[in-house]
Amino acid sequence: MTTPTGLPVRQGPGFAETVALIAALMGLTALAIDAMLPALPAIGQSFGVAEANELQLVVYAYMIGFGIAQVVYGPLSDVWGRRPLVIAGLAILIAGAVVSAFATGFTGLLIARVLQGIGAAAARVIAVSIVRDRYAGREMARVMSFTMMVFMVVPVLAPTFGGLILALAGWRSIFAIMAALSIAVGLWFFIRMPETLHPEFRRPLSVRSIVDAARICVTNREAVGYSLAIGLLFAMLMGFIGSAEQILGSDGYRLGALFPAAFAVVAITGGVAAFINGRLVRTWGMHRLSHGSHLIHVGLTGAFFVMANLWGGLPPLWLFMAMMVAMQFFFSFAISNYNALALDPLGEVAGTASSLIGAFTTLVGTIGGALIGQAFDGTVVPLAAGFFGLSAVTLLIVLWTERGRLLQPHHQAGAMPAVAE
């Protein structure tokens, strides 16, 4: 038997290498966002962008392409397999990075960033599909947790990485390094990861098959509810990322060159939480961990909103950082497990499911995050208001999804072949 690329089927990498490879693929998507943050003022100077909030579009343009393209990759990967689509996506990602490096105007850069996002979408969508092909239930959650741990370490290093390249060779070189890293990860994937789509799960390329797969996704209560939850939580993250340089670096707390270090403190918290989640999920279960963490998160975001107003929009830096670390910790527990819970019942259409869920959550998160980011007024009040409102609404959605039951493990109907909680 051969894969769609004509190569013989191989057993594939073990657990640890699978986690590392999937994390590397997903890490490319995070690197393309966070490595650019220290360079935003320099990009603005290069292209004469006077309005600081407008520079957030460098982040959000990438995310728009990233979100829309996910609709395409999933269904095609259910037809042709995972390998060809990952390789094609990485090629587009590399092309987008190269075009960005040679952009001659701000509009051209934004178009190139959309292209870069379109390519990165393949790594994000199909990486998750590969995990679902090989694992299910709590094992899938465990892989996703360890993957998210590595994935969330990337934002810790990316701003420092971008700032260093910026200082040594200018902002255009950041894109050149992105292209080189994408080539390296692509070669690793090509050599080590076999085709993971089981032949019996291949679907014909037809409008009807895509509609049928979409119907399975949108009629599953857990998939719909947890997808909404992921999207709204992701909006909080994008709201912070989009305005982080202004809040911490240039306008709010004015940390300047210390911005990457402050950003890293928040980002590393997510990695620590994902690691702990990966160790606990097999014992405690996805529902207990995610629901309990979300309840705490709502309380923390409410306290953050109150404090932001009490201190006139800019609490002391130490207090702001403490609140961000605490919120990020419990946010990471919730969203890691919500990703697994959304996909767990959809094994028969894993590619399309990952595609639709990824596109939906990315676009919801990008639009919501942009609304928060564009509301930046020199204070953290818009950020705090967005955090509290979105966290509270998301909890209501989870309550609907679970029919009023929280913290209670149960079987996920339709899981193939899921491990019961």
Automatic annotation (TrEMBL):
Transmembrane segments: 20-43, 55-73, 85-104, 110-131, 143-168, 174-193, 223-241, 253-275, 295-312, 318-341, 353-373, 379-400
Annotated GO biological process: xenobiotic detoxification by transmembrane export across the plasma membrane
Domain of life according to the entry: Bacteria
First-listed, main subcellular location of the protein, grouped into a coarse class: membrane
InterPro entries per record: Efflux_drug-R_Bcr/CmlA, MFS, MFS_dom, MFS_trans_sf
Keywords, comma-separated and alphabetical: Cell inner membrane, Cell membrane, Membrane, Transmembrane, Transmembrane helix, Transport
PROSITE patterns: MFS
Stated family: Belongs to the major facilitator superfamily. Bcr/CmlA family.
UniProt-recorded name of the protein: Bcr/CflA family efflux transporter
Species in which this protein is naturally found: Pleomorphomonas diazotrophica
